[in-house]
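Please fill in the sequence for the structure shown.

STRUCTURE ENCODING:
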């Protein structure tokens, strides 16, 4: 790939995973709001631990595995459908299902600003990591770099949610992102060589928080 295409792929990746990309990511917390409400996350250190858990053993790890599979299968409509169905089946709560599906569908719609045949291959009901992985591959984004950007964007969104929930300040939020750089890079590298057999997790508290959020009356986020 030429240097020009490298730069073009980088610019597109930056646009797709920017907070300004119109997919509505700001509306979701992935259960973090309930974790704060229940006292599981009380401060910046707790938020760091929470995000580390999701990267190692939780939804962010599974998202990374699904991203990698979608990247590899970007030219195979049947395999993308299988990955999408599995990704939706893995959603541990109604809100998690709604979150990943809403973001995935919105991502494909917004990415149409960069016309490409890959946009026709994911099914209509596509979870977010499958959508991003397939489109990234279609536009020549390297797997590991795409994964690192995806995970960094997910962590950044959670940090932003944590700031709005009052468990960290802006300076602490930046420090959290800096402190998690190594784990994000490590997770991206590890996930880039995975298969669907590597799906799985042990973030039980995070799953319970996502379920409990469904009955929370006063809230800022949809999940």
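FILLED IN BY: designer on duty
SEQUENCE:
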């Amino acid at each position: 790939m030429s240097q020009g295409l490298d730069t073009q792929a980088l610019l597109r990746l930056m646009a797709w995973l920017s907070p300004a990309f119109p997919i509505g990511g700001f509306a979701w917390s992935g259960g973090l709001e309930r974790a704060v409400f229940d006292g599981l996350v009380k401060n910046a250190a707790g938020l760091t631990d929470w995000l580390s858990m999701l990267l190692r053993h939780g939804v962010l790890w599974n998202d990374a595995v699904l991203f990698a599979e979608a990247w590899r299968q970007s030219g195979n409509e049947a395999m993308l459908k299988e990955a999408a169905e599995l990704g939706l089946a893995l959603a541990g709560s109604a809100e998690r299902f709604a979150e990943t599906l809403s973001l995935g569908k919105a991502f494909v719609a917004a990415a149409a600003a960069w016309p490409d045949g890959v946009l026709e291959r994911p099914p209509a009901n596509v979870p977010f990591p499958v959508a991003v992985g397939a489109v990234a591959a279609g536009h020549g984004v390297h797997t590991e770099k795409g994964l690192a950007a995806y995970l960094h964007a997910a962590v950044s969104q959670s940090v932003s949610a944590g700031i709005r929930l009052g468990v960290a300040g802006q300076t602490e939020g930046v420090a959290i992102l800096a402190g998690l750089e190594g784990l994000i890079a490590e997770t991206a590298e590890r996930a880039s060589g995975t298969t669907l057999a590597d799906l799985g997790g042990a973030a039980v508290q995070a799953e319970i928080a996502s379920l409990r959020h469904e009955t929370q009356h006063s809230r800022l986020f949809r999940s």
